[in-house]
Amino acid sequence: MSKVVVVNHPLIDHKMAKIRDKQTETKQFRETVSEIGMLITYEITRDFETVPKEVETPIQKTICNVLKKPVVIVPILRAGLGMVEGIHNIIPNARIGHVGVYRDEETLEPHEYFAKFPVDMNISTVLIVDPMLATGGSASASITMVKKRGATDIRFVGLVGCPEGVKKLQADHPDVDIYLAAMDEKLNEKGYIIPGLGDCGDRLFGTK
Ligand code: PRP
Ligand code: URA
Asked: Is the pTM of this model over 0.90?
């Protein structure tokens, strides 16, 4: 069974209040999603393996620790894009793949429409990034896509989750740990998370 980590930090809570607020406009919403993406990355990476590396400082040689494995960030289009810049700011060498998945508004089933990944997914730590874990259909389908490309070390990174989405992801992908900034109550009858923050893609890109 995978681990579920709800990252607890006053700065994250403060910024979550900002993006939940329906009065928050597109620009500030987008900036804040990115900032939370950066903050949550400290927790996601806490147990990343490191290897020793010799470095020559201006004074003398010393042994430092550097990340053992390459990192690939895979945002689920569209809303996942909002978290990429923040994560990339503190893992600047990470490469970026993309998966396009949208969920049918009636059936809530995920539909795949795009996939582009770096090579060497099999030796990388892959972060699947999407602010919303609702039914879990989009995240589960995206993880299946990266597994088909050889990824074995995968973590899901979201902002708002709910028990329904966590249950599905744990059932479909028990090897994938889940990191969230908040765990909400449940889904409403239209498949939106409550209290949630509404339609994240539309709020990020101003499409409604
Ligand atoms: C939203 C969100 C997730 C998905 C979550 O995307 O960004 O990808 O819904 O719902 P699920 O867990 O029930 O699958 P949406 O399909 O609205 O596409 P968009 O990001 O392009 O707006
Ligand atoms: N997708 C969103 O953007 N918001 C939700 O609450 C559920 C799915």
From this structure: yes
